[in-house]
Amino acid sequence: MEGKQEPKDGPHFVGKKAELIEAERSFRTVEGRDVLIIYRDGTFHALDSWCYHSGGPLHLGDIEELGGQLCIICPRHRYKITLASGEGLYKGNPGQKPIKWLSKGVKQRIHKVTEGNGDVYVTLLETGQFDSDYYQGEEGKVKREKAAEAEKDKSPKVSKGSP
């Protein structure tokens, strides 16, 4: 792990607790940073919303428990990211059972979530450098958009003609 992250200015109101619980996943821009807020198993998590590997849209990813840790799976290349720490996980013993999940280290920036009086707040944690930071900047944004366009071009085309 890169070390303890320190908060940037905040906390920032991101929504009413009941609404965020119902939504399960919510996208917010906090101080110009794209943040995904996830409610799962009684806990709120907040992390950078674009995957550290190639900027995939994490809000579309599946959430699974891997090796006792709750993870989001990037829909673009199936990278596994722990919700609690932002660690990237990989199979340590491919093809063997039981699967042993190992850490690549912290790759995805996570943020602190607090609650009060039915409101939910996010405090951005800005200390250190993480791979996901790239996709928050201008260069990363352009790369994300190009990848999204390329994925659209690969999608099967649906004809709108008569049967």
Strand order of the largest sheet: 1-11-10-4-3-2
Summarize model confidence as the mean pLDDT: 89
Give the tally of β-strands: 11
Radius of gyration: 17 Å
CA-CA gap between termini: 57 Å
**Share in helix:** 10-25%
Query: Structurally, how many domains make up the residues?
Result: 1
Secondary-structure-based class equals mainly beta
Biggest sheet architecture = 6 strands, antiparallel
Q: Please name the fourth-level CATH homologous superfamily.
A: Rieske [2Fe-2S] iron-sulphur domain
As for the CATH topology, it is: Rieske Iron-sulfur Protein
What does this structure look like?
- The protein has 163 residues and is mainly β.
- It has helices spanning 17-23, 138-154; strands at residues 12-16, 25-30, 33-40, 43-48, 62-66, 69-73, 80-82, 87-91, 101-106, 110-116, 119-123.
- The chain is globular, with a radius of gyration of 17 Å.
- The strands form 2 sheets. Strands 1-11-10-4-3-2 form a 6-stranded antiparallel β-sheet. A 5-stranded antiparallel β-sheet has the order 5-6-7-8-9, with no helix packed on it.
- β7 (80-82) and β8 form a beta hairpin.
- It has one domain (12-140): 3-layer Sandwich (Rieske Iron-sulfur Protein).
